[in-house]
Amino acid sequence: MALSREIMCCSAIERSSPFLTSSKDLLKQNTLLLVKSKPVYFQRRMNLKVVPTMAAIREDLFIKAVPADHQEEKPVNFKVRAVVTVKPKSKEDLKETFVKHLDAFTDKIGRNVALVLISTEIDQKTKAPKRSNEAVLKDWSKKSNVKAKRVHYTAEFIVDSNFGVPGAITVSNKHQQEFFLESITIEGFASGPVHFPCNSWVQASKSHPEKRIFFSNQPYLPSETPAGLRSLRQTELRSIRGDGKGERKLSDRIYDFDVYNDLGNPDKGIEFVRPTLGGKEIPYPRRCRTGRPATDSDMYAESRVEKPLPMYVPRDEQFEECKQDAFSAGRLKAVLHNLLPSLKASLSAHNHDLKGFSDIDSLYSKGLLLKVPMLQDELLKKLPLSKLVTTIKESSQGLLRYDTPKIVSKDKFAWLRDDEFGRQTMAGVNPVNIERLKEFPPVSKLDPEIHGPQESALKEEHILGHLNGMTVQQALEENKLFIIDYHDMYLPFLDRINGLDGRKAYATRTIFFLTPLGTLKPIAIELSLPPSGPSSRSKRVVTPPVDATSNWIWQLAKAHVCSNDSGVHQLANHWLRTHAAMEPFIIAAHRQLSAMHPIFKLLDPHMRYTLEINALARQNLINADGVIEACFTPGRYCMEISAATYLDWRFDMEGLPADLIRRGMAVPDPTQPHGLKLLIEDYPYASDGLLIWSAIENWVRTYVNRYYTNSSQICNDKELQAWYSESINVGHADHRHAEWWPKLATSDDLVSILTTIIWLASAQHAALNFGQYPYNGYVPNRPPLMRRLIPEESDPEYANFLADPQKYFLLALPSLLQATKFMAVVDTLSTHSPDEEYIGERQQPSIWSGDAEIIHAFYGFSAEIRQIEKQIEQRNNDPSLRNRCGAGVLPYELLAPSSEPGVTCRGVPNSVSI
Could you tell me which residue ranges the PLAT domain spans (predicted)? Predict the structure, then answer.
């Protein structure tokens, strides 16, 4: 309790508010009387001492005199004070400025912000929760023009000495405009300040008449909710769930589920029709419901909201101003980068194919604008953005250039080397598809009647000379062979993909050999096409080069592997497994877990911004004719490939240890620190990831054991069970009957489920996202699409290939327009915003929970994360670790926890926030 008092009484609000009188000061200043009220019982399982609430009453706050002989029988009225912290908008449009001034004026005549304190206790006479009088925020009009990140207001309540402890506050906003309420702290109770972390938009009563309810930071399981808060707990959850009807307004705070039926726009034409994702025909996770009307031409397709109009997400899920500014700046950069090559392409008779590697280099050195003087001088003057572009051109030429990606900043030609190709499978932007080869040759699982023979074209003679004298069987038994296998994922789509204009793909398999140095060496690539007839040459094997011709064929084969890999990375591992698969758990958490629930408090930072970034993706990235379709080989079939991979998605395999074991990259070993032995010790993603996984797991176990002392508490926790059930049965409805879903019956079950969710939202997403521009920004390293197949000797194009292999290679890569659009997008996606919250950090770290023991444990978790960062730094300086240290080798920092803003190729935010 001493620690609790110290933390509770040393909040940032107390330190920064000069007008706030602390409880200790109240006791010092002529305390007239101390009257005991009923004792406050915190949860019995928390082993906290029973603290009697002591109402400190000062002479100047004394309301009504009480005869001395009745002082212990009748309650005494006294004042308590609220400090309310509001975050004003730093930028306002003309309408918002006008309404702000109107609110400042009408606040003086009673159209104000009103608060009511609600006790944890029931009034025995009324059988209703004890309530204070209504109090209004003071000096709203005086402070309306204050230019600060936070503005503090005060309000005073009158309560009596039997009031108990406040557990909730209702807020009514009688202004015309919403405001962002960050926190409320109540001072005046002898037991110490009571904190209410709010972090929510409070809407105007005229459009949202119901009062907003905020609970104190004291966590309560549903069964232990104080009597005074039980009905409010249910009322708040009902309001968040809504009724599932009607179109959502941008100011709503309602969470509900829907299928992905808004990616296409059939009203624009048949080429914009896309299938609904989610349901029996095409299983997929559910998204946040918006309730927009159907399109005119398809009653099952939801009408779209096109940029720049905003898509609905619950109001508190929208980007805060700092994040929005950073994101808008990134979009501006993308507009400039896309605008110029678009115009350049339209002025030219050809498609601006890359003529040489110098064309790519100039994107970083000269920039696009500088290369097109006619656009500068003539066309830009006619564009709506002309003044903006001119200003930027004059003030900062750098904005019009791309930053040099890290992959070529150390070694311009690293991408050409086979060892770098192998290194990136374990330490690049997509390190989660490498598997131990369990049988050779590999065999397809596809239906042979539809997709042709299941046998691979790979033979022992293709790889035997690359095994350091081993036989193939020896190499398999000694765990020396590894594979990245995209055959079954791509083959069913290849006829449709290759039928698209300017898109060509294979279904690839790549075999790697583990060298004595601990690095992977590619030793064979299988390229498959759908069989077109009995004698079709649908499978081809390419091996490391022996001469100039085979060298260029090998480089083209690797480029096709990287194109496959880029698609799987973006559509399956990044978008599906972190963004889309997490959304149902987030929606269900808001619908079923009260803000008072300790598990909601644990998950809260790991849900930040995810619904907003997913909505923006539906609007701009994964939609019909969006960026993903434009930039990746599968084109209009991108999301169907994503949905196909969902068929094999299993939540129980998404945790890092389970995933490593499933891929054969690790085996269980209780003698190892994390219970696993990696088959490749220098596997940076896995070795760093296990450090973070273990830290998360330890923190979650400490947290769960604090609130659940036995399994019956977990089984009987109605909110917890409803959250998990709804996440599965509604959010992942197409997998609801799967037997692999983990049970939720014990503490170990809950720890495992929560650790997996936090891992996916934080470290897994970081490992897959923030290296995109550093690795993909140099398009030849990882081309997102390919435009030509590799010519056979009998093909007419083979002569052109022999005559100028570099030109052929560059023509197979994306065009300049496609490349620059892709680069602009991954630049934005790889950028940390200034308000990013990294793992081990929390908003309001000392008051997010009222449980002092948990606050102390969280600081321990933060310290462990800082130690992990130091350990990762040491590993990156260890020359024996060839996959992360060496001449021209990028250190592996994608799981280094902290980062500065910008594109840093490091940093683990708490949530899927970009």
Answer: 93-216
Give me the catalytic one of 769, 776, 876, 883: 769
Per-residue CA distances from 672 to 496, 677, 683 (Å): 47, 6, 16
The Cα–Cα gap between 487 and 444 comes to 7
- Burial grade of 352 (CB within 10 A; 0-12, 13-18, 19 or more): middle
Q: Catalytic: 914?
A: yes
Q: Is 856 labeled as catalytic in the residue annotation? A: no
**Position of tokens 């944890």?**
120
Could you tell me if 461 and 523 are in contact, meaning their C-beta atoms sit under 8 angstroms apart? no
Asked if residue 541 lies in contact with residue 524, where contact means CB atoms within 8 angstroms, the answer is yes
Distant-in-sequence, close-in-space partners of 438: CB < 8 Å, separation ≥ 6: 476, 664
Q: How many residues in the chain?
A: 914
Q: Please tell me the predicted confidence (pLDDT) of residue 341.
A: 60
Q: Which pLDDT value is given to residue 4?
A: 41
Question: What pairs with residue 129 in β-bridges?
Answer: 122
Q: Provide the H-helix boundaries in 78-136.
A: 94-107
The residue from 590, 674, 765, 832 that is catalytic is: 765
Architecture of the structural domain at 433-570+786-803:
Roll (3.10)
**pLDDT of amino acid 136:** 95
Residue type, 27: L
| Max Cα-Cα span within the chain | 111
| Helix, strand and coil percent figures for the chain, each rounded to 5 | 45, 15, 40
* Alpha-carbon distances of 104 from 99, 529, 792, 904, rounded to whole Å: 9, 69, 76, 43
Distance CA 205, CA 211 (A): 8
Pick the CATH number of 77-217 from 2.60.60.20, 1.10.3290.10, 3.40.50.150, 3.40.50.720: 2.60.60.20
Q: Is 337 left (phi over 0), alpha (psi -120 to 50) or beta?
A: alpha
Residues in the chain, pLDDT under 50: 1-71, 347, 349, 370-399
Dihedral angle sign, alpha carbons of residues 245, 248, 251, 253: positive
- Report the candidate in 588, 592, 604, 585 with the shortest Cα–Cα distance to residue 217: 604
Residue among 462, 579, 597, 606 flagged as catalytic = 579
Q: Is residue 765 annotated as a catalytic residue, yes or no? A: yes
| All structural domains of the chain with their residue ranges | 77-217, 323-377+387-404, 433-570+786-803
Annotated active-site residue in 574, 606, 674, 735: 574
Nearest C-alpha neighbor of 680 from the set 487, 427, 888: 427
